[in-house]
Hints:
Elements: E1 2-3, H1 6-14, E2 20-25, H2 30-43, E3 51-56, H3 61-67, E4 74-78, E5 87-89, H4 95-106
Parallel strand pairs: 1-3, 2-3
Antiparallel strand pairs: 2-4, 4-5
Amino acid sequence: MKEMQEVELLDALKSAGEPLVVFLHTPLCGTCKAAERMLEVAAHLLPAELQMVAGNVNMLPNLVTHYRITSVPALLVVSADRTDDPNIYYSMVSVERVLEYIRGVIS
């Protein structure tokens, strides 16, 4: 997953294009590391055109405020048309649940 800066992420979340999954984390979060591993597995089972990126919330104050991120790890998932605000998913308990959630948003 490519790590993105705040300006890049805000632009990607607003620009129509391919479906987008943004993994929000902090560097010292153990749960974030486990969720990142789940996403790496899930990426192999998702469509190739789905863009998956990451962002350190410590460096994303405007994004965190704008989307009201309450905890990490978190996923922001947006469809290709970007007509709605991103869906935010906090409960990453298994690869299957993460896949189900992402597929539900991008389909």
